[in-house]
């Protein structure tokens, strides 16, 4: 495949169709698919070129060690979870996490949520077993129906408090779901924008970000003391007349703790959908010196990433991604060869634009040592500017003795601390983290129980208590703050 620049004429939003598309969905009703796609292509953009360019600029700052990236949210969103409570809890946790990081790292935090469009899921097999039936795998709410809240549990599991409910017809891919995904994304984004422009992110509100339920006194005290430190700092700057709306200016990027920048992201898996939301727009004058320059923007999210299962250099996903101006992520796992990684960078970023590429490594705690150093060296030798981010979740998934998909807090921390150390040893720097976490609480105010360990020492026996993920296991509120303090203390010391 050619490594032509994105601006070259051999790329259009549909050239991916001539390539093999991994994880493709077979729609039984093609007419309906066409109608849906043509409707989607006329609907308004969800995000704007200037927001997208601003994120790319800020990721350039991350790459130059002037900021730190927090990429986090659910493994997958669901239409049912699109509620005020869930969205507020997620934003609250992202804000709490980033406040802890600002305090320790003394750097602006670039916040990118896995939110407002993270519906599609890659699956290792086309079918899966539910009870004693072999059915089409659930591919995410924008493709087919899940039907059963705990479908991956064996029927006989003593931990399944909910009956397996499965409507087989619901597993048929339905194009209408792409439209529902668009409207759920729009609703979610509207609520996020509303929250962030109405004082929810103000430093005077952190206690409203749902810390009240945190039962560990030391975790709570640590967080309260950071809030007090930062409030003091703000009062001081207000006194000396440098308040500027409670915002810290840093290296040209706005890093506000009063009203914050926040960006959306999802895995760019469903290329039909991504194509329909790709629009040719003027490149904002602030970033282009070329008169009347036009560019293709994916207007469904600020940031999109290519998953570990769809990053083949001659595949449809890489072809699509090489043509858009959005900053993009690429998952890098143990199966990535050194020269393959460099070839991939040559294809998606031939002009070596700063802030364009974020490499999200996800090897597993036991493998990071074997792969990361050589990947860092290969990228360095190629001269490609990249942001390196550690995803300590996806290489550390296991099945508990009770049959639940889980992750151990120790393994997550292990991979993360190894990453920080290895980057240092290789003359590189970890620029951010990519996490699956949730601030969701149940009706009694308890957090979910999906990952083992952490300061709350969640045991295998407790996993089934409030296991709510219908996809990968997420860190709960307390476990997430544990991770935030770990990173923060690392950069502080
Ligand atoms: C994910 O981020 O949810 C995911 C599926 O990751 P990966 O492609 O790295 O397996
Ligand atoms: Mn996941």
TrEMBL record:
Protein name, as recorded: Phospho-2-dehydro-3-deoxyheptonate aldolase
Record-level GO BP terms: amino acid biosynthetic process; aromatic amino acid family biosynthetic process; chorismate biosynthetic process
Keywords from the UniProt entry: Amino-acid biosynthesis, Aromatic amino acid biosynthesis, Cadmium, Cobalt, Manganese, Transferase
Residues binding phosphoenolpyruvate, per UniProt: 114, 331, 362
Listed cofactors: Mn(2+); Co(2+); Cd(2+)
Catalytic activity: D-erythrose 4-phosphate + phosphoenolpyruvate + H2O = 7-phospho-2-dehydro-3-deoxy-D-arabino-heptonate + phosphate
Cofactor comment: Binds 1 divalent cation per subunit. The enzyme is active with manganese, cobalt or cadmium ions.
Family in the record: Belongs to the class-II DAHP synthase family.
This enzyme's EC code(s): 2.5.1.54
Residues that bind Mn(2+): 75, 394, 436, 472
Enzyme class: transferase
Entries under SUPFAM superfamilies matching the protein: Aldolase
Any one GO molecular-function label of the UniProt entry: 3-deoxy-7-phosphoheptulonate synthase activity
Pathway terms, separated by semicolons: Metabolic intermediate biosynthesis; chorismate biosynthesis; chorismate from D-erythrose 4-phosphate and phosphoenolpyruvate: step 1/7
Keyword Transferase: yes
């Amino acid at each position: 495949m050619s490594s032509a620049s994105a601006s070259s004429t051999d790329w259009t939003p549909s050239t991916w169709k001539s390539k093999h598309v991994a994880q493709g969905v077979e729609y039984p009703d093609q007419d309906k698919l066409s109608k849906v796609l043509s409707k989607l292509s006329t609907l308004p953009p969800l995000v704007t070129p200037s927001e997208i360019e601003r994120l790319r600029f800020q990721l350039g700052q991350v790459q130059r060690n002037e900021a730190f990236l927090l990429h986090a949210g659910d493994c997958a969103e669901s239409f049912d979870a699109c509620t005020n409570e869930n969205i507020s809890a997620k934003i609250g946790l992202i804000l709490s996490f980033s406040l802890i990081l600002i305090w320790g790292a003394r750097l602006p935090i670039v916040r990118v949520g896995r939110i407002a469009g993270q519906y599609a899921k890659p699956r290792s097999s086309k079918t899966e077993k539910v009870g004693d039936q072999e059915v089409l795998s659930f591919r995410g709410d924008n493709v087919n129906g899940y039907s059963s809240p705990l479908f991956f549990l064996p029927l006989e599991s003593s931990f399944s408090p909910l009956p397996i409910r499965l409507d087989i017809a619901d597993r048929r891919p339905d194009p209408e779901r792409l439209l529902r995904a668009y409207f759920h994304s729009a609703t979610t984004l509207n609520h996020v924008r509303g929250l962030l422009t109405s004082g929810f992110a103000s430093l005077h509100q952190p206690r409203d970000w749902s810390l009240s339920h945190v039962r560990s006194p030391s975790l709570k005290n640590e967080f309260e003391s950071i809030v007090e430190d930062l409030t003091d700092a703000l009062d001081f700057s207000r006194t000396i007349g440098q308040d500027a709306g409670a915002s810290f200016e840093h290296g040209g990027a706005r890093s506000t703790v009063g009203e914050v920048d926040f960006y959306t992201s999802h895995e760019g898996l469903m290329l039909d959908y991504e194509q329909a939301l790709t629009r040719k727009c003027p490149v904002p004058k602030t970033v282009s010196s070329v008169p009347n320059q036009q560019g293709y923007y994916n207007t469904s999210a600020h940031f999109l990433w290519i998953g570990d299962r769809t990053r083949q250099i001659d595949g449809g996903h890489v072809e699509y991604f090489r043509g858009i101006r959005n900053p993009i992520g690429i998952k890098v796992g143990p199966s990535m060869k050194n020269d393959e990684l460099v070839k991939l960078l040559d294809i998606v970023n031939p002009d070596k634009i700063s802030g364009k590429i974020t490499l999200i490594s996800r090897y597993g705690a036991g493998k990071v040592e074997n792969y990361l150093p050589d990947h860092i060296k290969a990228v360095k030798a190629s001269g490609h500017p990249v942001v390196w981010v550690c995803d300590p979740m996806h290489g550390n998934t296991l099945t508990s003795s009770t049959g639940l998909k889980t992750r151990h807090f120790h393994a997550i921390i292990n991979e993360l601390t190894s990453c920080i150390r290895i980057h240092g040893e290789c003359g590189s720097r970890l620029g951010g983290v990519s996490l699956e976490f949730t601030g969701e609480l149940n009706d009694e105010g308890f957090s979910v129980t999906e990952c083992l360990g952490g300061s709350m020492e969640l045991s295998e026996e407790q996993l089934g208590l409030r296991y709510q993920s219908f996809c990968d296991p997420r860190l709960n509120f307390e476990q997430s703050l544990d991770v935030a303090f770990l990173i923060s203390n690392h950069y502080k010391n």
